[in-house]
Design goal:
The protein is mainly alpha-helical. Helices cover 87% and strands 0% of the residues.
Length: 100
């Protein structure tokens, strides 16, 4: 195993553990300030649904690119979809926080 592969695995592991720690810590702080209420639940449900809708649109766009002859590897497509899904989820969460 090369150094780049080990650093890649280390980065993935640190990213996952950092994300889980941030999720745990954020929910702990929100619970302390009574932030986990019905408004939070409604925003979470709507933003997750919109995140998936945005992801489905980009899946269709990637299929159209494939039909047009663009060659992408599986890792590239999954990386693009992960980034699109997370960005769509984040932007829709911000939108619903502003809206409600």
């Amino acid at each position: 195993m090369s150094l780049e592969q080990m650093l890649g695995f280390l980065g993935i592991g640190l990213g996952i553990s950092g994300g889980l720690f941030g999720l745990w810590w954020g929910r702990k702080m929100a619970a302390r300030k009574n932030g986990l209420d019905e408004r939070y639940d409604k925003i979470t449900i709507h933003s997750l649904a919109n995140g998936w809708k945005i992801t489905v649109v980009f899946i269709y766009l990637l299929f159209l690119l494939f039909i047009a002859g663009v060659q992408l590897s599986t890792a590239q497509v999954l990386g693009i979809l992960l980034l699109i899904h997370m960005a769509g989820w984040a932007f829709s969460t911000v939108y619903y926080h502003v809206k409600y």
